[in-house]
Each structure stands twice: as structure tokens, then as C-alpha cells.
Amino acid sequence: MTTKFEALLEKIYTIHDLEKALMLLSWDRETNMPPKGDTARIDQMTTLRRLAHEMFVTDEMGELIATAVAEQANAPYDSNEASQLRYLQRHYADQRKLTPDYVKRSSEVSGQARPAWVQARAESNFALFQPWLEQVVELCQELAELYGYEDDPYDALLDKYEPNMKTAEVRAIFDAVKKESIPLRQAIAANADAVDDAPVHQPFAIDQQKQFVRAITAAIGYDYDRGHLGTVVHPFATSFTRDDARITTRWYPDFLNPALFGGLHEAGHAMYEQGTHPDLYRTPLARGTSLGIHESQSRMMENIVGRSRGFWEAHYPSLQALFPEQLNRYRVEDFYRAVNKVQPSFIRVEADELTYNFHIILRFELEQALLNGDLAVKDLPTAWNDKMQELLGVTPPNDAQGCLQDVHWSRPGFGYFPTYALGNLYAAQFYETAVAQNPTIATAMAQGQTTALVAWLRENIHQHGRKFTPGELVQRVTGQPLSHHAFVRYVTAKFSDIYRL
Amino acid sequence: MTTKFEALLEKIYTIHDLEKALMLLSWDRETNMPPKGDTARIDQMTTLRRLAHEMFVTDEMGELIATAVAEQANAPYDSNEASQLRYLQRHYADQRKLTPDYVKRSSEVSGQARPAWVQARAESNFALFQPWLEQVVELCQELAELYGYEDDPYDALLDKYEPNMKTAEVRAIFDAVKKESIPLRQAIAANADAVDDAPVHQPFAIDQQKQFVRAITAAIGYDYDRGHLGTVVHPFATSFTRDDARITTRWYPDFLNPALFGGLHEAGHAMYEQGTHPDLYRTPLARGTSLGIHESQSRMMENIVGRSRGFWEAHYPSLQALFPEQLNRYRVEDFYRAVNKVQPSFIRVEADELTYNFHIILRFELEQALLNGDLAVKDLPTAWNDKMQELLGVTPPNDAQGCLQDVHWSRPGFGYFPTYALGNLYAAQFYETAVAQNPTIATAMAQGQTTALVAWLRENIHQHGRKFTPGELVQRVTGQPLSHHAFVRYVTAKFSDIYRL
Hints:
The structure is a homodimer of 501-residue chains. Helices cover 63% and strands 3% of the residues of chain A. Chain A contains 21 helices and three strands. Chain A has helices spanning 4-31, 38-56, 59-71, 80-97, 100-123, 126-147, 153-161, 167-189, 206-220, 257-274, 291-305, 309-322, 324-327, 332-338, 356-372, 380-392, 418-437, 440-445, 451-460, 470-478, 485-498, and strands spanning 229-231, 237-241, 244-249. Chain A has a three-stranded mixed beta sheet with strand order 1-3-2. Chain A is globular. The mean pLDDT of chain A is 97. At the A-B interface, α1 and α2 of A face α1 and α2 of B.
């Protein structure tokens, strides 16, 4: 006899398949679609998104979830049944709060704000984007009211990317990161000459770069039998099932870092998806639990693994073999230091491992000020530049390299940015725990081996998919809530060594 | 005020978008998907196919079509409105005839028959496939009854690929082709040494092949701003809109023909889709009207254009520049003759322009015998080999190179094969008409220029999409029904010259 829970899952499978087809439409748009195909693609994506939403928010679905919850009342908290139902209840309540009118207006504003942003950035002319950003801020304010909140309107937005996390909690952690990292950044700045990044700034043939990126992503544990490497302008990872989780990267002819660390970063994301438990197949739990936890997996592979000394001791010889003319004159230690150069910069996506968080903290603080009405949109460029000076000690020469650099604010997506920095902090805390629980992980890492680390991540994080909220997961895995401590210990030790502080 | 017709189109857009998403799932499966992604992909495709079908076959849709037909009763036959409604009425009636039970069984048998066929072919063991083919034949018989027919059960099946065409009509044409082509094939065989295909059988670096295929497909009129070239095992073309119509081909390291003629063939298909009228956007009319007419466009580009002397006089120098070592010792005339070698072979997909039709006629005759019960499945291998001897004068050494070579019979798709040969005949008849109406087309073709030809195809064929049935189209365009005459004239003139008959 079919249980209510099984009947519910059958309906969820259909919606899931639609959403995965939608993700393929999106993946293909970035990787293969000819530009003129975009009009039809937007229509196709809009249709699938609408159908998936309509199927999910019916009254019948609400009743089915409720009866399944009653039926499974005795399922243990950790069980797949209880976890599926927790997620579905929460997601259903959220989706029902989004009125069709809001969805339509939000989509219209985003559609028009994006080209306005492209032009504003190209001309470094904030005035062109200002009226759209004003509408985006209003949409964010409206969204916070639709979702509802207890203390802080920003909570309602953050919650969509980092479920159950509160603004006050993030603020306390970010303040501690600032307090500890600014002196470290200043000490490094005083010793900037200690690191030369010339090795990575040379001509590098793209075919060889591809060969190397394929080799190192496979070496850290990304499974190409269940994966695919594509080329795009803005790298991302996506998955259509744990058995088809794809990565993308970009290739610069005269700068190695974007391809290497982009590839490792996206492989970290995709390995999380590849590692979800097969029993979660075709359900919304078969993916990473939050953007922050997802980012912890990508940052783990990009930085803690990919920018470690052991990693380059293992892989530098094969990189030299591909590029003897460029690299034979540099020792592995030179290369290791080159990929770890700390240098305050204007552009978030080019930032190093230490200063990256400052870019995020700046956006986190400005988003709150805009949302609460403490900052008018017209004053954003000045506020941006003031904060850049405070946090990074530099002032952008223009708004294109300042407050116009990111696409994110062309849609009502406030609350997304903080997850990037949370990822760095989660990653450090997870890694510290992993090594404490299994010291072999550290000795293997010193030789560039990640098998033990990945096994630990699979067991403790990947397999659970979305069964637990990020707060529950970090508590289960590390025995305490997220804090700045592990990250500060990690960067202090690493950069004190590299910069001989 | 919204008309009933407009309301109907709104519903059709949704179904169309689902079907295009389904086609992308399928395209991606062949081009990019890692093999292990297949389980989920089949689930996703099944879901989208089911949703599209369910949305279309509702009673409400039937009523909406009927009221729109009444509303548009005065629309001219050629109008988009009348043409859309003719197609939708017909398609709706067909889809309603397919019972869910039949669809389910058909899908199950196909799903299991395919791996059985793969194994049977690999081992050249017909007995492994026989029980599945028996079920496929039964499903074809059942399908003919579901669809219904007047004279011949095969009519019901053929109709799905070549709407309104009758078996008797195809038989008469194919018999005439046989009668005229067998003596020509025999005359060529007596003079086989006149052509040497050594030039195309040499090592050819794949990167340069890609460069050349891209250049010649663009040269004949395939628009890469609205297209994409991918690599697959079995080439095909697909379109998600006229502005995103993709081609694929394959690359052999030591044989040029598959990449060159595969690329030109698929470009012909995709140019048809790129040429459909923008007003047909997002409707079922925005694609080729039948498999046979579609094949006429691919064969036109592959053979009438791509295997013409003028084409190679224009493009051979750049091919020589890419492969000087292989080709500088051959004149353009040598190369032209090499790509036109006629040689009876066992495998359909490797057949030349003249003998290809025999492979199809054989399948057409055997499908009817199986369907009518005149041939038992167990006797197929013998019947196959007898017909090969009659039509091509050769006998396959085993069933893998005989009746097991094609995937088509692993699904209930009898009626599909004839469209391949019909395409050759349509192509010749269209081309003869085009040149008669505009002699510039022939003089330009003698210099490898296709602009005038493509403009004629756009005007007379492409833009109409599926507005007319193939019978209507060929009558409108050429002033008479399809016959074998133009094809026979074309191959007789061409091969008499090449083989000095």
C-alpha cells in the first residue's frame, strides 16, 4: 500500500525533474547556446519555472504535505522521511508567501535592471543604474515583509540563502573577522615585497591549461565519470543528479590563476553534489544545504587544498613539464608563494584568500543600510568608497571598479553576498575539526593527497545533502556553532609563515 | 479582446516550451552528459514527455481547438491561423488515439529491446534480438490499428513521418527507382576502376577537419550566430528555435567523408529550421514538415551541393592548404571523383548517393512483410540477405552487418526508413525545379556558390515550416507530385560522366 509520504514524493519527483530541466536550460545558455537563441531560451525557462511553481503551491500539495507529516510523526529527526518533510513544509510555506504579482514585478524589474547595469558598468556611470537599484531595494523591502521576520528585515532575506541564520549572528562573526584580519592585512602590507606573483603572470597555452585543470580536479576527487568540464565567462557548477554534476572554468592566455583556482573551486561545489546520498535521488534534499555550506566546499578545494604547500609539491612538477619555459626557473616554493600573494584590490572576484572577506563584509553592511533606509541609493558610491578605505585601505578610481562591479544587485537578492564569506569560515572550522578527528588528513595533505579529507567530507557533510540546516550541520560536525576562530587561526598561521611575520 | 485562437496559442506555447526543453535534455545526452547521468536523464525526459502529452490531450484542449476552428472558419488555407489549426486538429486526433497503456508498453519494450539489440549486434547473434523484434512487430501492428487506415496497415505508420503519403504511392516510386537504378549500378560496377577513393582515406588531423567543416558549413549558408557544432557518435541536428538550430558530426582520424558529409548533411537539416518564418515562433509549425522533406534539405546540402564539382573547385584549395602533405598530389578532379565513388556495401550509413536508396527499399519491403505477417521474424536474416543480393548484388558476411545494423527496429517505428530515400527524390525534384525557375542557381553552383539556391529554398520551402503536408508542398513548389524522374535524371547524368558510361 502506498503511504501518503510516497504519494507526496511521486509529485515531488515531477517538480524536481522540471527544475532539473530548467537548470539544464540555464547551463546550456552559458556554455553552448548561440547568443541569438536567448529570446526563446528565456521563454522556455519562464515556462518551466512557472509550471514547477504552480504545481508546488497548490492547496492539494499543502494538504498532502500535512497528511504526510501526520503519518510520519514518529519518524526520527535524522531520517530521510522527517528531513524531506521538514524541508517541504518550510519551502511550501515560503513559496505560498510569494504572490504572483510580486513574482511578476520582480522578474520585470530584474529583466530591465540587468542591461541597465551592464551599460552603467561599461560607462562607469552610476546614474544609469541608480533608478533600477532604487526599485531593487524596494523589492527587497517588500520581500522581507512578504516572508516576515522577528528582529531584522535582513533576516528574512538572509534566511533564503542560509536557512535559520540571523543577521545579528553574522554581524558578530564578521565584526570579529574584521577586528582580527585588519591588523594581519596591515602587517602583510608592510612586508609586501616578500611575495612575487610573476610566476603566474606569463603566457600559458590554453590547451595545456585544460590538461592540467582536468588532472588536478580529478586528483582532488572530482569524478569525471559523473562530471563534465565546460568553458564559460563566469564560472559556476551545477548538477542534474549526483551522477551528473558539472563544472566550468575560464581560460586566460597570460594568467594561470583564474583557470586553476576557478576549476578547483567549482570542483569543490560539484563534489558536494556528487557526494549526496543516493537515497535522496530526485528530491530537493539531493543538493547542498545552503549557499554558505556549498561555498565552504568550494573554498576548501580552492584554498585549503589548492593553495597549500603540499598540493603544489605534488603537482608542480607536472605543471612545469607542461610549461618548462615559463616555470623551470621557479622553485615550487616560489610558485606556492605566488599563488598566495595577498594584495588589497578593488574587485571582489580577484581578491586573495585573506582580503576576500572584506569585500563581502562591505556588501553585507551596505545591503543592511540600504534595506533599513539608513543609506539612500544615490549615496551608495560614496559609502562604498569610504568602506573600501576602512576595510582594505584602497579607494576605487571609478564606480565600475567600485559599487557597479557585481551583477547581484540587479535583482532583489540581498542576503546572498554574506554566504561567500561564511563559506570561508565554515571551511576553516570544518577542516580544523577533520584534522582533529583524523590526523592522517593533515599528513596526507602535506603530500597533496586529499582522499582522507574527501572521505571525511563525504561522511560528515556531503551525504546529508539538505537534511539539516547549516546551523544544525555545523553543530553536528564540529560540536559548536560557527565562529571566526578557526579561520583566523588558519590565515594567521599561513600568512605569518609566507610573509615571515 | 483575446480570440479563441490566441487563447489556444497561449496553451500551445507552454507545451512547445516543454517539448523544446525535452529536446535539449536529449541533445545534451548525446553531446555532453557523462554516461552515469543516464538514469536521471531518462527520468527527466519521461516526466517532461508525460507532462507535454497530458497537457495536450485534455478534453478542454479538444474543445478549445474546435471553437478556434469555428472562429477561424474564414481564414485562408495558406494563413498561419488555418495552418496551425489544421496541424493541431490532426495532431490532437492522433495523440488521443494513443492509449496510456499502449504508450507505457511501447516505452517498456523499447527500453529493453535497445540493450538487447546492442548485445545482439555486438555478438552478431540474431537470436538474442528476435524475441524483442517480435514484440516490436506486434506493437507496430497494434499501433496501426490504434491510428486506423483505409487500405494498408503500413499507411497508418508511414503517415506519422510523412503525413498523408500512402504506401502504394511510395511502392510505385520505389519500384521505378529500382528499375532504373539497378542497370546503372551494374554499368558502374563494370567500370569500377574509373574511380579511386584513396584521397579521402589518409590520416587527417581532427583539429584541421573541424576548421574545414566549420568553414564549408558556414559557406553553404548555415548561420553560426544561430547555430552550434558539436561532436557525437551518431550525428544529428536539432533546434530549440529558428535562432538556435544545432548540428553535430563525428571525426575519423583516417577518413574524411564522415566529418565532411555528416557536417553538410546536418547543416542542411538545421538550415531548414533556421529558415522557418519568425511568425511561426513557439508553435509546432516552426519546424520541417516531414522527415522526408527534412531529409531532402540535408541530402541537398550533402550531395547535390557537397558532392558537386563546383563545390570542390571552390573549396578544395583551402582543404589542400590544411592538408598539403595528403592532398597536394591530387588534383581537384581526383578528389571530386573520390567523394563520389559508387560501391555496393553492407552498411546503410556508409552507402553512396546511388546505392543508398537500395538499402531503404529493402527495409521498406521487409517492414511491410513483417507487419502483414508475410514474413516471420525468425526468417528475417535470410530474407534480408536475399534482398541484399537482389538489390545490391552483395551478401553480408553476418547479421551484424546485415539485419542487425540499425537501431530503428528496437522501437515500434516502422514507416520511418522510407523517408530517407524519399528525401533523395524530393531533393532532386526540388533542385530541378529551382534551376528551371532560376538558371542563375546552376551557374552559381558551378562555382560552388549556394546563395541563390538557399534563397530559393527559403522562399519556397523553409519559411513555410509545417504549414503544408509534404504532398501539398511538393505540388506547390514543383507543380507535380513526387516522382522518381528527377532523381533518375540526376544520378544518370552525374555518374555517366564520372564513370564514363
